[in-house]
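For practice. Any example?
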Amino acid sequence: MGTYDNQLLREQEGAILQDLKTRGFADPAAAQKVLVRSLAGTQILLHFEKLSASVWASQINVLTYLNSRPAGAPLTELRPFYDDAKQQNAAIYQNYPFEGWLAFLESFHVIERNQDTILLSRVGREFLKWRIEVGRAGPFFG
């Protein structure tokens, strides 16, 4: 725990402990439950923020499309999302093949592949909901 230690971190720990006390979670079992829930939410938020910072418009479009397809969609239905984006953004897609475009979404666990069918995952569905809830606009390219 001491590998990353600084004054700001210690101040934040103090603030968390004070908040727990103020909210009546002095009992270690109750505090643990609250802290685990808070950490889980923070980890999900961090995941969504990282994805949001690097996802392209065409990928958001395909996630939105998959949201309307509970049984998923064959790769042939998703390829036009990539092809259209590649045509409009030739320079950035020059060395970015379709499989890499899909692999990016898989790496963030927002889609699942079942042979030649792609499904929106639970993570993907929650990501789309989060974008709406926080009013996230864009991305506007790619």
In short: The mean pLDDT is 95. Residues 28-54 form the longest helix (27 residues). The longest strand covers residues 111-114.
